[in-house]
Amino acid sequence: MINANSEQTTAYEIRDLSKFYGKFKALDNVNLSLGQGKIVGLLGKNGAGKSTLMRSMLGFLAHDGQVILDGQPVNHRDQHIFEKVAFIPDVSGLDDRLTVKQTMDYVRGVNPRWNEATAEKLFSISNLPLKKKVGKLSKGMKTKLYLLITLSLDVNYLLLDEPTLGLDIAFRKEFFNTILGEFFDENKTILISTHQVEEVEDLLQEIIFIDNGKILLQEDVDVLKEKYRVVTVPSDRGQELMAHSPKTISKTLGFVSAVLDSSVEIEGATYSRANLADIFLAVAGGSQ
User: Looking at the domain assignment, is residue 179 inside a domain?
Assistant: First the structure.
């Protein structure tokens, strides 16, 4: 595994983390360090272990190994972690019986990290109907409410687990723009778990690849993209690509392409920049 955080302040440190569900090993000896002031992507196929890793980082699951936050161990069902960490899962868990305003009032009353000035700013521009019950909101509006409540908390770490799954493209863009504009700064850390990296690729500074419960790599995004490129040749020259043992190959309109090490040179080939999804498939193989 490549560690991209050796010269920065470590926020999260994960040591020899494994998690079993019966005989199934969902996480296999995971070691990671997440630094402050970073937006980090966690990319893997469905079932790769992304959600299990995040829930272990939050103390939701018992596991083998250690999770350490700001030098302190995170224990199973450790409520103190939420003094520093906010979590946006794929299911919001809001109470459908409450109105938007009642939901805000409830969180304000039970969470000492609530920042009233931030909340007023966010909700004043949100277009959320304060008197409407949560159960009557669209999925997009529910997600927006959950997001704005979360961003109204004074925390340094934000974990996102497929937060925009099933939402339209306009709202997904608004979602991430709000996070960047209202939460992120050089003292905070965001970890975004996704199997569809295209919508967040331009936000990420660092990427983690996970597959079958194992960390394949952790790397600075720009550095990683310099290591690979898409190589394309006519279909009748496909064996020249296969000679470099790519894990995946694509065929379109009389040409074949593969993501190869940037040092590979094939006479007459054309080259283009690989995106993170391309590189993930080159490293992990298979489909996402």
Answer: yes
